[in-house]
Amino acid sequence: MSLDYLWQGFEIAFRFENLLYAVVGCFVGTLVGALPALGPVTAIALLLPIAYTSNVPVDSTLILLAAIYYGCDYGGRITSILVNVPGDTGAVVTAFDGYPMARKGRAKDALAISAITSFVGGILAVIGLTAFAPMLAKLAIRFGPAEYFVLILFAFSTLTSFAGEQPVKAILGCALGSLLATVGLDPTTGAYRFTFNEPQLYEGIDMVAFIIGLFAIAEILLVLASDEKRMQAPIAYEGRISISADEAKACVGPTLRGSFIGFIAGILPGAGSTIASMLSYSIEKQLGDRNGTFGHGDIRGVAGPEAANNGSAGGSFAPMLTLGVPGSATTAVMLGALLLYNVQPGPQIFITQPDLVGALIASMYVGNVILLIMNLPMIGLFVRMVSVPNWILMPTILALGFIGVYSVFLSVLSMMLMLAIGVVGFILRATGFGVAPIMLGFVLGKILETNLRNGLATSNGDVTYFFSSVTSQILWVLILAVLVLPPIFKWRRALKEATARTAAPQPEA
Amino acid sequence: MGSDMRVDRILGVVILMVAAAVAIGSFGIEYSFSSDPLGPRAFPLALAIVCALCALWLLARPSLQTVAVSPSAYRSFGLVAVCVISAALFPFAGFRLSIFLLCSVTSWLFGASMFKACIVGVLNAIVLWLAFTKIFGIALPPNPLLGF
Predict the structure, then answer these.
(1) What are the backbone angles phi and psi of residue A192, rounded to the nearest 5°?
(2) What angle do CA A266, A270, A272 make, to 5 degrees?
(3) Which residues of B touch A442 (CB under 8 A)?
(4) Using an 8 Å Cβ cutoff, are A259 and A303 in contact?
(5) pLDDT tens-digit profile of A188-200?
(6) CA of B136, closest CA in chain A: separation in Å?
(7) Is the model's pLDDT at A53 over the cut of 90?
(8) Domain limits of chain A?
(9) Short-list A291, A295, A386, A246, CA closest to A103
(10) Complex prediction ipTM
(11) What is the rounded CA–CA span in Å between residue A182 and residue A204?
């Protein structure tokens, strides 16, 4: 595969208005990343309908939204390091060593190293995306209904397996999301499903209302309902950057490993930045924590996870673009953006839309450079903006959500639908549901059903069709591995701990 | 409702009811001919079964989280109410008036004083109106009584 598409893309990405969109996206991304109450999906969900209705061309919209997405991973670390509150979910781990560093008066060093490793992780992931995406597209061009069906089952399985304490809630989230996606006209038979004779539901629950409800509205309700603790003042960051050559050298390994882990976790559906940074941190701790410095301001504990968290953003574009199967909530919204503009992602996208993909990937090289520049000298600006109180921030976010939904549909019913989804989303999130399963269920459920039924139609109802190709067999094995291995590991660890306890009885026993 | 009521038990019951409704609803989907052996009913029905099984699991093994409505949780009800009212008023009261209502009440719920909340409402109404109608070229409903 030649890289012609990329050179063409650079031409588009370097156009003045696209550079401007990239700068705006990077700025908004860093800002919402740094604000704990706001995540990338909310920001993207709010800006998508506005860009769409004000006739911003599709390549510029994508450049803007993508910049917000990967820019967010630069912003999250700021609050993690200075306030010990992660600005977004991917930056949870950065606080483990970043905050202790700041407490020791090394805030500037922590911010600098995390900006640089973010950049390395981001750029390496884009290079990986450039090389890997066309390969994945080539592989996927032979995918039929069977492969897609199993692939989506695999996505749901990884999502469940990484879900944490209550995997059952991840399964439920996927199922509920998929159920909401069945509302509307069934394309194969023309039957109306769950529309309650309401014409506006004939085309299904609209993506824009769904996203703004699930993210923006639910988010605001959550912030309001949680007894908001006053965020403590950020630690002052004074002095000069003083990272010794030895420290810089020590960071090289963690950064490169972190970038790789991040990229792989990004490609893997359902994994994403939180898992990437956690994995990177625990690996670095096992490899390098000889003097027990991790958790007490070890610079390597900042470098690795930050590279991983940015690497995953780049990696996650690959399955979304080339398979049309997003692996995270954010890329699911990006997919929604493409569909809104009538662009169908999939293995053909490098043939049908080479300029668009090229421009998007090229803009990610440009964007990461912009972000590095923004995040080194201009860091003070973002730090000041982090302390904007909620009573100023929240009303505007809410208003933007209303405008977004209204401007696309011009109907009060869509706004009510958005509010209803927001309330349900709020209840689910307050009771321990993750938002990613619901969102991915909503997006992937449709594709899952279509491919299941198309597959059965071509095979005349023969179920073995879904096991017939090598690709689908490999995917079935992966599903088994993802579902079976983690519980076994957990069980073995529990067993080991139990035997250790009986071998060496506790003093009080 | 006792304070020791497990959240997952309530969730389980609600989801069981939803699953039952979906199952009944899927049998009611009408279609004349299907080119695939499953038809439009099977997938939602299967999802309803998955939901029901998960709900039973929640009932059997609920997490420790219990129902606790903190005083601040009541503010969420207020926020939902003002959202619904502002959305309903949108085409009648016009964009600026409903956004003023929405933003000032939200700001107040988030702890601003009455005065500050009103300023937030006015600023949002004016700035967003100008930004969207003049810069982005998005048509937003004016106030029909005032005519602008």
Answers:
(1) -90, 130
(2) 35
(3) none
(4) no
(5) 888 889 988 888 8
(6) 5
(7) no
(8) 4-494
(9) A295
(10) 0.91
(11) 7
What is the C-alpha separation between A50 and A31, in angstroms, rounded? 19
Mutate to test the interface with B, among A152, A171, A226, A431 (most CBs of B within 10 A): A431
The 8 Å CB, 24+ separation contacts for A59-62 are A59/A12, A59/A18, A59/A355, A59/A356, A59/A359, A59/A360, A60/A17, A60/A18, A60/A21, A61/A21, A61/A337, A61/A341, A62/A334, A62/A337, A62/A338, A62/A356, A62/A359, A62/A360, A62/A363
Would you say how long chain B is, in residues? 148
pTM of the entire structure? 0.87
Tens digits of residue pLDDT in A439-462: 999 999 989 999 999 999 988 888
Mean pLDDT in residue range B115-126: 94
Contact, A97 vs A299, CB < 8 A?
Answer: yes
Give CA–CA dist A456/B118, Å, rounded.
60
Chain A residues near residue B30 by CB distance under 8 angstroms: 191-192
CA separation, residue A174 to residues A328, A473, B148 (Å): 12, 23, 46
Q: Which of A333, A334, A325, A215 is nearest to A270 (CA)?
A: A325
**Phi, psi values for residue B129, rounded to 5°:** -60, -50
pLDDT, mean of residues B3-7 = 70
